[in-house]
Request: fold
Amino acid sequence: MKRFLWILLAIMLLAGCSKKQPSTEQSNPTIDTIQPTEPGLYVPGSAVEKQTSGAVRSYSLKAGEWFGLSTVGENVLVIGNGELLLLTGEQGWTTEAEVNGLSESTEMDTYTTGVGYYDATTRTVTVLDAKLQLVTQKVLPEDVEGAPVISMIRNEAYYFNGTEIRAMELTAGATRSRLLRQQKSMESLLPDDYFDGNVLSCQVKDAAGEVRTEYFSSETGQTYSQDQGIDKMQTFKDQYFIERMDIHAQQLIFGARNGEKQSFLLQPTEDIQLVPVLEMSGVVTGQETEQGLELSFYDLKTGKCTAQVVLPDAKSVKAIQSKGAYIWILAQEGDKQTLLRWDITKSAVTDENVYIGPFYTPENPDEKGLKECVKLANTFETTYRIRVHIGTNAMKTTGDYKVVAEHQPQNIRATLESVKPVLEKLKPVFASYAGKGKAINLCFVRSIESGEEWVRFQYNKTWWFLISAKADLTDALISGMTLPIESHVIGNSRDYEFDRWNPLNPAEFVYANVADVEPNPKYLQGNTRAFVDAEAMTSISEDRRSIIYNAMLADNAEMFRAPTMQAKLHRICIGIREAYDLQKSENTYLWEQYLETSLAYVKK
Reply:
């Protein structure tokens, strides 16, 4: 399978394509454009300008729903529901256009030549020039799935008609389209183009049901490569910034064509917004603090935070756009919106911390980070009485299974953190094995070659679990432990003999002892229920293991209300207490949560 980095290597080798400039031919105007006649939007001496010592200027916005920022040439474009506002000059002189069909979900693109957007209700692509005057409007020649991708730099709109991806010229006289590539099935045509419009992307589902992103030429339709992890890619000239999810680890990767790939280490969270501003080779973060909204600028060349400012009245950022030496911010202040211009040179800070680092791969793992994870994993034996193996240690005992080691410390830390609750609940069981010097072993790996999410086997009379990064850890451990628990109870419980189990079943019932069985419905429902499911009717062992498994899951109380199900669960729970020496425990354990009569020990 092609690795993610090959995407960038392929893209970086693309030959440059000549830019097609929109013509100036105009159709009958349908856009209400208002030329600037009033003073600019800049508010001299505003509160925020005083609070930031002149680093931030405020530009007033009329009431409305403004949600986006972009640029048209040297000018800043403010985007709202049904409105466009173009700011020119230091004072913010404006050109305004009222645009029908424009909303936050509208597909739009801008370039030095103007603005293009798509109205899904009329299937129309509209092109405005750099002064927001109408250039042309074209209806897509056929029905489309989803929205088209508009590329002003290439003067084309790309759309999917169900079987083909086609390209339509935006400003030629007649409506013409060309076949870009055949596409039998597709999840969606992604709404951005990259590297000066030379690359497009779409999502498709493979035979295994996995959704992947394919990157292809906007000139020829040729596929360059594919990836399953990229959430978002932004480009500016030869620079790129990628947000990529690798199992649990969010990777922020940036670089330039033919340059070294690096990682931005500061992660976005629910509290921290993160926006690349590649024109300035930087990243802006926004975080709400007690003093107000704190904005920080990180230089991707040095990896350091070089500017910081606090906006006392701002509550959140709706959009950020860089242009020239400034960063423009569409901010929410109480119940109103305002436009701010931040001059980062006037709010410089000194921070010696470096927030960028190498981009790690399976061939070049983060050795330091992995060593820290090993230290964390080693604490599990003391805390939960279970042995945890990660990284190369997880490769040492894998039975007959071939596995790939996990190389991402973020994935390992997330895995270890997420598995703690179920380990805590199973600790009494694990302790019994640990006390005999044969602690249960968990090996966390990236993947298992067979495709299974987890497997269980015995080695030297010790239980081993291989669990992949994609597994549901709670289900894997609970399901995996049913066989060790049942085996241990059979050998160590006085009250668990086979001949004391059959009398719990309906008098006429006999286990099928075959894989397929035609179940009697009355045994699977209501007050006559006696089994978890049809598979539980195949053998005594399957019956008991299905009860142990389902008794430890949430929201299964109804399953155990019938008298027979209560009797079976009671017999199993008594057996577990005897086998694991828990008779005098005052606790109620996970597998006992649906018992109507508590087994917790009460001191006399």
Remarks:
- The radius of gyration is 31 Å.
